[in-house]
Input
Amino acid sequence: MTLSKTKPPWLRLRLPQSPQYELTRRLLTHAKLHTVCQEASCPNIYECFSRHTATFLILGDRCTRNCSFCAVQQDPPHPVDPDEPQRVAEAVAQMGLGYVVITSVTRDDLPDGGAAQFVATIDQIRLKNSNARIEILIPDFQGDRDHLNLVLKSTPDVVNHNVETVPRLYPRVRPQADYHRSIAVLNHAATAAPEILTKSGLMLGLGETDQEIEQVLHDLRKAQCRVITMGQYLQPTPAHHPVIRYVPPEEFEDWRIIALKMGFDQAACSPLTRSSYLAHEIFNGAH
Output
């Protein structure tokens, strides 16, 4: 299969010159907080920081898994920081966020997979920002329902868990994850806490076929997932999984229409769409 070498015009971004970007960056640096925007080399970072928003990355900046698509460091993790939830909540207050997205590295080294840190962060945000909506993008907790239930009991407004790609590509793209386990996480969240909006994300351009994408969408709907995001995979470094194909915007629009016809409440599909990009707007649209 021929690999795509050159980014097409629709992926060539002009970086905005905004003083708000630097203000956001400095605030997060001063608070000693990580964001997935920075650690995962998100192409939307300049836009989001300039809008004075960010996706907080808790449990450190080192992941215990070795996904070939991800730019986050894959090194032995640091101990859990007990003060991190409070610092996140203080940053949320300083930024004046009415909608907060919290994600984490995967911490298979922890007995609870980091579930307690999610709960503590949600509790601290609510303590200091009682009206803020909270979306969490969670790991699979190795399929442990007790740990997932612990997080669900903290009643976030949205639980997001990304399937990322089609099952056939998991051995190469997500070797320590399991597609059916991820589907089960979403299904359990929707069944155990139907008042919480469930959401998942899929990357295109890794070598998947249209039939495989459609099957994933069917599997997500069967698991009662209500929101889907679909975006173009971009290779972080030459050592990561290559881009097999750059999917044009019109195909993403086709997938958006297909997903809505399947019954998703909301479908955000475009080359630059990411899991938490415009998350507040997607949440409002789903309601």
About this structure: DSSP finds eleven helices and eight strands in the chain. The chain has one domain: 13-286.
